[in-house]
Design goal:
- The chain is an alpha+beta fold and 279 residues long.
- The longest helix has 52 residues, at 22-73.
- It has a 4-stranded antiparallel beta sheet.
- Strand 8 and strand 9 (239-240) form a beta hairpin.
- It has one domain.
- The protein is built from 5 helices and 12 strands.
- It is 27% helix and 11% strand.
């Protein structure tokens, strides 16, 4: 006897399609685009914050490496010509030295960071050669550390990433240590040995004078106005100057890659700069 179900025709419901219609697809794409537009600014902000933290870490590491070198060898990781050029600045009774670079000003013109009156100008590769114990850079240029003369113990005081070009973060083939945005770190070292550092840029009153200080003696970010033994402001190149109460200053121009000698340190193009001494 046949089963009733074997002979009865099967009935099926109406067919449904699992595919998107064109309108549904466009709606999905629009939603994805809106979500991406909302998330992108947050992602970019997070990236910049991560870069800032990295730069802050690196300026601190550079300063610590210089302190460690000076503590062990009782001298700073600089060339003889750099030291001689600084100490021979008789008009200012000895100077500090800023290993700088060229940056953009808001108006678009290049701004080299150098100490006025000094004839020797160079970037931070000189310092890097000593701290990294490098005799030659990948581009073939010999350093001031030939024969490990500046680093006789062959100690690597700094752990820095190496870059394959001169635009990327890290130590490039030219020996220049660049920040996360591709600009060289600026390093100022106390070469007149007064335990204070006067940076070529942050010494400027237009940059570092605290406008909220009625006495005019306090600088922004913890800097102080240079004074003589009688407490009077010292003029260097016919202007008052600010300095850090530390023998080393290291800084980066920050995400905007710009500096402005006519703006305060906490405003405009200078506001986002990364400083080793910031308080």
């Amino acid at each position: 006897m046949k089963n009733h179900t074997d002979t009865c025709p099967r009935r099926y419901g109406p067919r449904t399609s699992a595919a998107f219609t064109l309108i549904e697809l466009l709606v999905v794409i629009a939603i994805i685009a809106i979500l991406a537009g909302l998330l992108l600014p947050a992602i970019l902000r997070a990236k910049v914050q991560a870069q800032k933290r990295k730069a802050q870490l690196e300026v601190g590491q550079i300063a610590q490496a210089i302190h460690a070198y000076e503590s062990e060898l009782s001298k700073f990781p600089v060339s003889s010509i750099g030291a001689a050029n600084a100490t021979s600045a008789a008009s200012v009774r000895g100077e500090d030295f800023t290993y700088g670079g060229s940056f953009q000003r808001p108006n678009g013109f290049a701004m080299p960071v150098v100490v006025p009156g000094l004839n020797y100008v160079t970037n931070n590769s000189e310092v890097m050669a000593v701290l990294l114990d490098a005799e030659n850079w990948p581009n073939g240029v010999a350093t001031i550390n030939q024969g490990h003369v500046k680093n006789p113990q062959r100690t690597k005081y700094l752990n820095a990433a190496m870059a394959t070009d001169t635009n990327s973060p890290g130590v490039g083939p030219d020996g220049v240590y660049r920040d996360p945005w591709g600009n060289p770190y600026v390093i100022t070292i106390d070469l007149n040995y007064d335990e204070k550092a006067r940076d070529a840029f942050y010494r400027l009153p237009a940059v570092s004078q605290d406008p909220d200080d009625a006495t005019g003696n306090r600088g922004l970010n913890g800097l102080i106005k240079k004074k003589d033994s009688n407490g009077n402001p010292v003029l260097i190149n016919f202007q008052q100057v600010f300095e850090a109460n530390s023998p080393v200053m290291v800084w980066s121009a920050g995400p905007d890659k710009q500096i402005d000698p006519s703006s305060l340190a906490n405003a405009g193009a200078n506001k986002d700069n990364i400083l080793s001494w910031k308080q």
